[in-house]
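ok trying this again, last paste got cut off
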Amino acid sequence: MTKRLIYALAMLLSTACTHYAPKPTGYFRISMPEANYHSEQLKDKRFLLSNQAHLELSDDDGQTLFFNIVYPNYRANIYGCHKTIRPEDLSTAYRDTRELTLRQAIYNQQITEREYNNAEKHVYGNLFCISGQVASPTQFVLTDSLHYFVRGALYFEQAVNADSIAPVLEFINNDIKQLMTSFE
């Protein structure tokens, strides 16, 4: 009986001293490196690519070249294609790209579209940023309006929370902007 009383008293005293307060869910701090770039080539076009990424080329049937820009440290990929087009096919290619982008925003997410024009290099394009929980938060298009059409879409290798990947997304979006402005 005495042992039980001592045990109960010890349990009571040990639990009475602690105060439990629930803590909010937290995320790991992601420190992004300084942006450094190297030159890459896609068919006859050159552009700058982040040192955090590498370019993988796949099927090329002469008409369409598929490529991946891989960010291994962030488990992210930009899946893209470089397609040879005729000027009359440009509007169809743009329409298809817009439809694919709009399919991402089925839950009323906001789509921000930025136009890119470089008449000196004859490169024109659009950058689509989709906010919220979407499979592909960033997509882009580049063209010279005559011969080629490049489309890319960013995907992460796992389901992600938009808040938790914000620093990585901002870093990769800056890389995509650099790719677009350096494309020639």
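PB: full thing came through this time. Strands lie at 37-42, 45-50, 54-60, 64-71, 76-84, 111-118, 123-130, 138-143, 148-156.
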